[in-house]
Write a structure and sequence with these properties.
With 209 residues, this protein is mostly beta strands. The chain has two helices and twelve strands. The termini are far apart.
């Protein structure tokens, strides 16, 4: 009888560096992403490692015509800015380097795979993929269960997985908290930006879909 070993996490043939290669680690990176609900600004998150060290912050806008979020490093420097495209049927978000709104600084876009969805499915297109015939990354799963997987394009190669984290602290502090495992050689700043957009698109559905 053939022995089938449990699936492991083979290193990517090429590092997945979208925001920057310095956000790629040669080992799995476990992150805790906490939504801060007790704040005036929408879309505020804190991102820590498993030991509680702050790695990123996500700052939302208090009063803004555009849905806009900025991913900051622990020192408060902008890494990327996330902007929802107004009047986009597929809930399209665009992500730019730093705090730039300039099209030359566009890194990637995210949109719903289809208008009507029973399961979460988002397509991610890198800026160079202007035709958008085939997505560069895909997010699939159940938002209701807070369980989603990020794949490399339309393949079965997983680059990150997210699930809901239940803790006494998250219940007491009224926070939505997610645990994310980023696979080796995958840009964890890119993955954090994807999880924030995933959150925003699905929270939007409560009001608009």
């Amino acid at each position: 009888m053939a022995y089938n070993p449990a699936p492991s996490r083979p290193p990517m043939a090429n590092p997945v560096a979208v925001v920057g290669p310095h956000f790629c680690a040669p080992y799995p990176v476990d992150l805790i992403i906490s939504k801060k609900l007790m704040t005036l600004a929408e879309g505020s998150f804190a991102v820590t490692d498993v030991n509680g060290n702050l790695m990123f912050k996500v700052k939302g806008s208090i009063f803004s015509l555009h849905d806009r979020r900025v991913l900051l490093d622990a020192a408060g420097n902008p890494i990327v800015s996330l902007r929802q495209k107004i009047l986009s049927a597929h809930r399209r978000w665009e992500v730019y380097r730093g705090d730039s709104p300039d099209s030359k600084d566009l890194l990637f876009s995210v949109k719903k795979s289809s208008l009507i969805q029973f399961k979460t499915e988002l397509d991610v297109f890198l800026a160079a993929n202007t035709k958008e015939d085939v997505c560069d990354f895909k997010i699939k799963g159940s938002w209701f269960d807070r369980s989603c997987t990020i794949f490399l394009g339309n393949t079965s190669s997983i680059i990150a997985q997210m699930h809901k984290k239940h803790s006494v602290q998250s219940i007491l502090l009224d926070k939505d908290t997610f645990s994310v495992t980023v696979y080796p050689h995958v840009d964890y700043a890119f993955v954090v930006a994807l999880v924030v957009i995933l959150y925003e698109i699905n929270e939007d559905r409560k009001d608009n879909d």
